[in-house]
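does this look right to u?? magnesium ion version
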Amino acid sequence: MKTHVVSAETGGKYIEEAVRWLVEGEIVALPTETVYGLAADALNPVACARIFEAKERPLYDPLIVHLPTTDWLASLCTFPLLAQRLIETFWPGPLTLVLPRTPMVPDIVTAGQDTVAVRISAHPVFQKVVQRLERPLAAPSANRFGRISPTRAVHVLSELNGRIPLVVDGGPCLHGIESTIVSLRDGHLFLHRNGPITREELEAFSPVQDSSETRIVPGSLGSHYAPKTPCQFWDGTPPPSGIRAGLLAWRASGEDFAVVVYLSRRRDLREAAARLYASLRRLDEYGVELILVERLPKQGGLWAAIMERLTKATLASRKCFFSYGQTPPLKYPSSGRRS
Ligand code: TXA
Ligand code: MG
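got this back:
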């Protein structure tokens, strides 16, 4: 299959093209304000199956449903008062709510669970497509399973070229990290994934509890958010000799590294989040053998969301690299790549 890229700057042409594919049960990559999503008609189980196929995603990992308008909520889920208050404040935007589902939601979307994850994207391109389609769109991040989420159309191409018919290029994503995911049960708010809506913002509505239930958010598995290159937190010492290492830096000068990529020279957490995945991809593409990651000093706001993803990136690659600080194996696994 040939993958066509259409710019969102071509007037409304991209809307017609995207909607045409979606009506036919095909899958289309669309920009959202968080990361690029791989969208299919959420009420068409066969179309949703194509998402799993293209991403090589296991069927136990449920999809987020993106609504055209809040009018769809009542058909797809039940929502308590607390959910309504969160929706009024944060939608459209990067907050995903996990709520009890109705039978209208196909099982493939929820991975057979009794809940469905819903949000309304604030991205004008996504909104135009979903509103023209007038049906909800299931859309996970538009990367192959276990890889870094795409924040630009070229990233989508590098993940899914030849597997999907269309990518709508809406430029770089504003937030650069995936939405915050919360569930509401028995009047309590559980935080499943840190994201652009911070814990502090949520706590204004209800006390927030960390979800210990990794079962319902397989996205919390360490195998997510992995660059191809082995990746470890930096302990501040020079990288192992003979190894070409890159540094994902916060404030260090990084003299001993083959390449240094700064998350934000202004040390601004919003900018750092927006550049996080693109920076990891740049280091991957630079062809270093090891990516070392400087820890960000603990603070509020987006710090938790950024560190959560950096930690997962390092955990995911631990198995394919010697423990940093120890002697490297004789034959260095220079690729450590997974497809
Ligand atoms: O910002 C985002 O959330 C992006 C954009 C495209 O909207 N989407 C995204 O989707 O990150 P995905 O599939 O890559 O991550 C969604 C996470 C998955 O880890 C999935 O397990 C979890 O949401 N999820 C989906 N439905 C769920 C449910 N019913 N209960 C618990 N977790 C759920
Ligand atoms: Mg994802």
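The first helix runs from residue 13 to 23. idk if thats expected tbh
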